[in-house]
Specification:
The complex is a heterotrimer of chains A (159), B (148) and C (828).
Chain A (H helix, E strand, L loop, with lengths): L6 E8 L2 E8 L4 H8 L18 E4 L2 E4 L12 E3 L13 H8 L9 H14 L5 H7 L11 H12 L1
Parallel strand pairs in A: 1-5
Antiparallel strand pairs in A: 1-2, 3-4, 3-5
Helix pairs in contact in A: 2-5
Chain B lengths: L1 E8 L3 H8 L2 H7 L3 E6 L4 E10 L2 E15 L3 E10 L2 E13 L5 E12 L1 H6 L3 H20 L4
Chain C lengths: L31 H5 L15 E7 L5 E7 L1 H4 L4 E6 H7 L23 E2 L5 E7 L2 H8 L3 E6 L25 E9 L2 H7 L2 E10 L11 E6 L6 E5 L4 H12 L6 E5 L13 H14 L3 E4 L2 H7 L5 E11 L7 E9 L10 H4 L12 E9 L14 H19 L3 H8 L8 E2 L5 E2 L4 H11 L2 H10 L5 E16 L4 H4 L10 E7 L5 E5 L8 H13 L6 E3 L3 E2 L16 H27 L8 E4 L2 E4 L2 E7 H10 L6 H6 L3 E6 L16 E16 L5 E11 L6 H20 L31 E5 L19 H13 L14 H12 L6 E5 L1
Parallel strand pairs in C: 1-12, 10-11, 14-15, 20-21, 28-29
Antiparallel strand pairs in C: 1-5, 2-4, 2-6, 3-5, 7-15, 8-13, 8-30, 9-10, 9-12, 11-22, 13-14, 16-17, 18-27, 19-20, 19-26, 23-24, 24-25, 27-28
The chains are: A alpha+beta (159), B alpha+beta (148), C alpha+beta (828).
Chain lengths: 159, 148, 828
């Protein structure tokens, strides 16, 4: 790739696996995940860090991966949507809850929503409806009107 | 967009006016400037970088000191390009003496942006413009008093 | 009117008895597993060897002549593969076919700005380079010299003689004009007991802004001459029909592929302009080209929803509250190029009287050009605007003349026994019961309790308002309505195609002509086919997405305009029935030449009714036909293929372009919403305390999917009503082109929606379903109505679809300032 700027070598854990990569200075983490690692489940929906489609988990926290440089992931542990559920076909209970309660339509915001929900439930296993709605502030969805996303997360919490 | 403000500058009016109406000194006073190129006693160009919500955009502008009234008024017109965006501005400064030997500069700026920058900057443009102009006044003052 | 009283232009349709075991159930979606696991294939996920990335240089000016373009510095950068300028486009492309008659048709529309840029963000030069970042960096080296021209941004003032002309070849900024006149509104105005006059109503500019931006990977293969478009355009055949003639490419030499699309909502219909530029660039560079829109480009330069202004609205009302109709002038702001317009100039007339029994209506309709982003058929296309205006009328009449808003609506609604109802322009509303829906919506918010709460809030600094919105989602278009705006257009009717087959080992496979963007087509299709073939939805493989070469299509194929349940599933039902028929005939022969009437498909077998032992699995049927065909009688073998295609054709005739009448849509889904708002007297901030959405869309195939669509449409409507608008300044600069400032509704903005539903099956569709999905924009009416209800006496009427705090604040103060109210009443 012909890009200008320095190359950085980073070591990071990706979905539980320790890896070493060379990244360009200005490469965004989301582009690194999608183009270099080839993991296409993390999506890009805006230019300004508002939509949350690129949400991943970094050291246990939900982070918009378009707002981080790949170089900043050095020494970190990141989890993407590909880490949920067993193997190519398995759905974990959170994903099952979304399927049952129709918490997705086009699916473009879904990976970001799921990872955000995962960290919410890890911190707060029994969130109120209001807490869930508040936690979803960083994820824009244009299809569902949010109601079924909230219900899916409530159902997952109840499991 | 019209932005205006008023600043106190602790230097005599005539010195302030001289600084603001000299392309070399005015060019040198612009904040975040990378290069200045003075062409004659009224025209100069400058390249700088503007901070937007998404980082920095290089800006290249041509300035003309369009109006001068000795000791009391300067109007500077600038136009230029930042990537695909175009910028045009007209800044008028009216100077008056303050009782303590210093000056007051009442300024108005008419700034027009064309391109996506007009969207990215529309919330912080007044602050950006005010910063730029106050920065100029500060540097002009420092230059005038011999320190930089 | 009802079926007995009058002759309908088309008859009720026989509906398959086989539907019902899976249709109507909440079958979990087939699409979900891949989407939940991030395995969806969206266009930006795709990659081709040797591809380049595209960046567009766009005009910063809303209106400017392009004096010169210098790409030399850009092309000198190593890694830049090619550029394409508007000047080249002018030579390589014929202007797009225009749907308007002259003079509107004289506007020259190309994929990039050729002589002039006509809106901020219009593409001027395309740069192809080896990386996304390099393309953007190199694009900064392109030098474009512009001669700035004055811009016009007001969709009404643009017709004034002193306005700058946007398309010189048109001669004015009017794209189309026509008058729709039904009944005798002058007589009604002369004889009414009251005339309510509203100065101005305005439907604002916003977008459904799907989360995935437009994108494409285009490869014009020099070897085969086929141009492949892997893209998220949601109406690919419409795109093909426009871009093919423009670049001299036969439809047969185009391939379109979509798989997962991150929302469309009508905004991804007019992206054929970008596809054209990408095709030309691919051919020039000899490489595949990949393009993904930035969000700011999507908001500034893809498509906006129609902005419409209604002036001089006059409403004749009788003393008992019967509203006779209305008269008004409408100005629809199409932006810089018409593209899908002026179809919108007739599409609103699918719902001329809205949900009401109005008989006397005159609309003087002008489609105008402005230096803003061109519009596209945004969710609820053209009906939203008209229906909001009608509800504003009803709401205002109730308020001004002192009628109860619920009773006034019930008096004027089309009554349940009137269906199928013939509207003043000949449209047939198939079924409905607005009264029951209104009652249900009021019950969901506990109307009596809310009224008490409203009274109790008086003087607290918070004002409570209750609003009602009644709308329609007219579905399955008759494209013949295009002849009402231009009698020369060669379009009429509608159609969708589906293909249902057995694969070599008896696997049931279906392909569709549609391009789903989250509506669950794979699932509902499987439910219907499972019913017809006596299997389970898991046993039906519906090919994901759309693929022109592998799937099947007609001219109108795509997913838009609330019609899949009728047209798409109508095609599926037809194809599945054909396949079933063939399987029965083969099965009857294989079972020893029994009577076909004794053969049934059940439990995954073709068997003798009443004798489960005499059963052939599907693999047996398929294997015989595909690899063992000598065992069948010759005549039978010649007449079965187990590959069955069906095109569903709704029963439309060509409308009458003289008097602008006809049957324009087949189904009429309806919506009644009720909202409870709390308005802060000090700030004008509006909070939604409660929101009920009651929906009716005929017989539901998958109730959970239907409810999801209602939630989504409600979310979009609430977003537009309170948070989302496009702000242009007087220079035509879009001031909120990113999600930082275009406030897409969030999880806190949309309340937990209370959903209710009734079912009034359509007599005219193969499955009793009605198209749905767009919704009718009910939240816009509902929230306007609720805010109106919260305002003090003497306040200006709510006049705009968009009511952010600053507008509500002005409305609140208008009462105490004694300003004009925007409405007047004359009574006899």
């Amino acid at each position: 790739m012909a890009d200008s700027g320095a190359v950085h070598t980073i070591e990071l854990t990706i979905n539980g696996e320790q890896q070493t990569h060379n990244v360009m200075s200005r490469q965004l983490l989301v582009h690194f995940i999608r183009d270099v690692l080839g993991m296409r489940g993390t999506h890009i929906g805006c230019d300004t860090g508002n939509c949350g489609a690129c949400t991943i988990i970094v050291d246990g926290q939900p982070v918009k991966s378009c707002m981080m440089l790949a170089a900043q992931a050095d020494g970190r542990s990141i989890e993407t949507i590909e880490s949920l559920g067993d193997g190519p076909d398995g759905l974990d209970p959170l994903q099952e809850a979304f399927r049952e309660h129709h918490g997705l339509q086009c699916g473009f915001c879904t990976p970001g929503v799921l990872l955000n929900a995962k960290t919410l439930l890890a911190e707060n296993p029994n969130p109120s409806t209001d807490e869930i709605r508040r936690a979803l502030l960083g994820n824009i969805c244009r299809c569902t009107g949010y109601t079924n996303i909230v219900k899916s997360i409530e159902a997952a919490a109840a499991k | 967009m019209n932005v205006s403000g008023r600043s106190a500058v602790p230097m005599p009016v005539s010195e302030l006016w001289t600084a603001l109406s000299d392309p070399a000194r005015l060019g040198g006073a612009l904040p975040h400037v990378d290069t200045v190129d003075v062409r004659d006693d009224a025209n100069f160009s400058a390249t700088s970088r503007v901070t937007t919500g998404l980082g920095q955009t290089p800006l290249r502008m041509d300035f003309e000191i369009a109006d001068r009234r000795e000791g009391e008024h300067v109007r500077i017109v600038g136009s230029g390009v930042a990537g695909e965006n175009e910028v045009w501005m007209s800044v008028s400064l009216d100077l008056s003496a303050e009782g303590d030997g210093g000056s007051a500069a009442a300024w108005t700026a008419d700034v027009r942006l064309r391109g996506v920058l007009s969207s990215l900057l529309q919330r912080n443009l007044p602050a950006l413009v005010a910063d730029q102009i106050e920065g100029v006044l500060l540097v002009a003052q420092q230059a005038g008093s011999g320190s930089r | 009117m009802n079926p007995d009283a009058k002759t309908l232009p088309y008859s009720p349709v026989e509906q398959s008895e086989r539907l019902g075991q899976w249709s109507g159930k909440n079958v979990p979606r087939k699409e979900d597993k891949r989407l939940l696991k991030g395995q969806g294939a969206f266009v930006d996920d795709l990659w081709m060897h040797r591809m380049g990335y595209v960046h567009f240089v766009r005009s910063p000016h809303a209106h400017a002549r392009i004096v010169s373009i210098d790409v030399s510095k850009c092309e000198a950068v190593p890694g830049v593969y090619a550029t394409l300028t508007g000047k080249e486009v002018g030579e390589l492309q014929e202007p797009y076919f225009q749907m308007a008659p002259e003079p509107g048709a004289n506007a020259k529309d190309y994929c990039m700005a050729v002589d002039k840029a006509r809106f901020m963000g219009e593409p001027v030069v395309a740069v192809l380079a080896e990386s996304r970042e390099l393309a953007r960096d190199a694009a900064e080296l392109v030098e474009v010299e512009y001669e700035v021209l004055p811009a016009v941004v007001d969709g009404v003032a643009t017709v004034e003689p002193d306005a700058p002309i946007i398309h010189d070849e048109v001669g004015s900024n009017v794209g189309w004009h026509g008058v729709y006149d039904y009944g005798d509104v002058d007589w009604a105005l002369d004889n009414a007991d009251h005339v309510v006059r509203i100065d101005r109503l305005h439907f604002h500019r916003f977008s459904s802004a799907p989360l995935e931006c437009s994108a494409a990977l285009v490869n014009w293969d020099p070897g085969t001459g086929v141009c492949e478009f892997q893209t998220n355009n949601q109406m690919p055949m419409f795109a093909a029909m426009f871009l093919g003639p423009a670049i001299g490419l036969g439809i047969d030499h185009m391939q379109f592929v979509t798989q997962d699309i991150g929302g469309g909502f009508g905004i991804k219909i007019t992206s054929y302009t970008y596809l054209t530029a990408l095709a030309l660039l691919s051919r020039k560079a000899g490489r595949p080209v990949k393009w993904t829109e930035y969000r700011w480009e999507h908001l500034a330069a893809s498509a906006h929803g129609n902005e419409r202004t209604f002036l001089d609205v006059e409403v004749p009302v009788m003393s008992d509250g019967t509203i006779l109709g209305f008269k008004l002038r409408a100005f629809d702001d199409a932006g810089a190029y018409m593209r899908y317009e002026p179809l919108g100039a007739v599409i609103w007339s699918q719902v001329v009287p809205g949900n009401y029994r109005f008989k006397h209506i005159r609309v003087d309709y002008t489609e105008t050009f402005t230096n803003k982003c061109p519009v596209g058929p945004n969710r609820g296309y053209s009906r939203l605007q008209h229906l909001w205006m009608i509800e504003r009328i009803v709401d205002t009449v109730a308020h001004e003349l002192g009628f109860d808003p619920v009773e006034l609506r019930k008096l004027n609604y089309i009554q349940p026994e009137d269906f199928p109802y013939e509207a003043p322009n000949g449209c047939i509303y198939d079924s409905g019961d607005y009264h029951a829906m209104l009652d249900k919506a009021l019950e969901l918010v506990d109307y009596p309790a809310v009224k008490q709460r409203k009274e109790a809030a008086a003087g607290s600094g918070k004002r409570i308002g209750i609003g009602i919105g009644t709308t329609l989602d007219s579905g399955t278009n008759n494209f013949g309505q295009s002849r009402i705006i231009n009698p020369e257009l060669p379009f009429s009717g509608n159609g969708e195609a589906a293909f249902c087959k057995l694969d070599l080992y008896g696997e049931v496979t279906v392909t569709l002509g549609t391009t789903p963007q989250g509506q669950g087509h794979e699932t509902t299709t499987a439910q219907v086919v499972a019913d017809i073939l006596g299997i389970t939805p898991e046993m039906v493989h519906v090919r994901a997405g759309y693929n022109k070469a592998n799937h099947t299509y007609v001219g109108f194929s795509g997913t838009y305009a609330s019609q899949f349940a009728v047209t798409g599933l109508g095609a599926v039902i037809g194809a599945a029935e054909k396949l079933r028929g063939e399987m029965v005939r083969v099965g009857a022969a294989m079972l020893g030449g029994v009577d076909e009437d004794d053969v049934e498909l059940a439990d995954g077998f073709v068997r003798l009714a009443g004798n489960p032992e005499a059963a052939i699995p599907f693999i047996g049927i398929a294997a015989t036909v595909f690899s063992n065909v000598a065992e069948l009688p010759g005549e039978l073998a010649d007449s079965v293929s187990l590959n069955c295609r069906h095109v569903y054709r709704p029963p439309f005739a060509v409308p009458n372009s003289e008097d602008k009448t006809g049957q324009l849509t087949l189904t009429y889904a309806s919506q009644v919403h009720v909202a409870v708002v709390e308005v802060d007297e000090e700030t004008g901030a509006v909070e939604l305390l409660d929101y009920a959405a009651v929906d009716e869309c005929g017989r539901k195939v998958n109730p959970q999917i239907v409810e999801g669509q209602v939630h989504g449409a409600t979310g979009h409507g609430i977003g537009a009503a309170l948070y989302e608008t496009f702000n242009y300044d007087s220079d035509g600069q879009l001031l909120n082109a990113t999600f930082m400032d275009y406030h897409a509704a969030t999880s806190l903005d949309v309340p937990m929606i209370k959903y209710g539903d009734i079912e009034c099956p359509s007599p005219f569709t193969p499955n009793g379903a009605k198209g749905m999905g767009e919704g009718g924009g009910a939240p816009l009416s509902t929230i306007s109505s609720a805010i109106q209800d919260a305002l003090p006496e003497g306040a200006h009427i709510v006049y705009d679809t968009h009511n952010p705090p600053e507008r509500v604040y002005d409305l609140l103060r208008s009462a105490s300032l004694g300003l004009p109210r925007g409405v007047s009443v004359t009574s006899r």
